[in-house]
Amino acid sequence: MTFRHRTVRTGALLTAAALVLTACGSDDGESAAASGGEGDLGDLTLQLSWIKNAEFAGEFFADSQGYYQDAGFGSVTMDPGPGAIETLVATEDADFGLSNAVSTAQVIAEEDAPLKIVGTKFQKNPFTILSRADGGNIATPQDLIGKTIGVQAGGNETLFDALLEVNGIDPADVQKVPVEYDPAPLVDGEVDGFLAYLTNESITVQSLGIEVTNLPFADNGLPFVAESVITTDRMIAEEPEKVKAFLEAEILGWQDALADPAEGARMAVEEYGSDLQLNMQKELEQSEVQAGLIVTPDVEANGLFTISDELIEQNMTTLEAAGIDLEAADLFDLSLLEELLEEKPELTELPS
Hints:
By secondary structure, the chain is an alpha/beta fold. 39% of the residues lie in helices and 14% in strands. It has a 5-stranded mixed sheet, with helices on both faces. A 5-stranded mixed sheet has the order 7-6-8-5-9. Helix 5 (155-166) links the parallel strand 6 and strand 7 (175-178). The chain is globular, with a radius of gyration of 19 Å.
């Protein structure tokens, strides 16, 4: 699984648990340091959004350093994706999941799923239009005009259409062609641009010795949070301490991951993703690139996993552009994170 892209899923997700894709990580989903014990809060199941690579360095630190156990959990299961994350959390087959605002909002709007985002890792989503610097060289939305863009069917197509809309570009002025998730059409010059991830395909294409240009969605009219922690309304109402304990362990883990990206990459390659034949250099670069999606001025001011009111408003504008009709309160509930940070203000500190 060298190339991939997680799409925004649509339609009947809450009835599709049986269709969850076979995971690419460990066979049993157990974390490397699962204690097998029984903490006060019970065992923990976390549904990851992708394979066990450096994208989850903070989770690896939280597990290996015992932060989950210190917070009160027993054994820890981190199930790798891809899969129907919202379905698994809504049906409580997973306590928490990592997804993005658009995916979760779609499921809430279409399926009336009892889900909320309670915090986020990525302040800026990693979606981008990737191009070769010696080819399409798409640096601004207006550069899309007259170009051929490879777009994956489904949710990615919805996002691409929204990108055109918010930038006032007539879809007739851009040739959209269907592609899969392997960026070979871009590498081979068959398309001028390719819908990709800053933390994945962009790095992979550069590793081939090709200079690339990126048009990040987050900086060009479509800001929305990603790698967001989702859980159920029931969990928030009936087990608030479990939510707060999980967020505390996550914050501590990501403080470590930001302080030592090389160790996060090493754990991905040698331990948690050891069966995936990951490339150390790519994982290290991913660790460094994603730090820029995690740490923003708002995070420096308020702490990891927080989401400012302004960013929430920007997310809602993006959802409107994507044709998703929700109120902010239908998608976000940051009350427990706010309580946690008031109780333990040291958690707002970032590594120097």
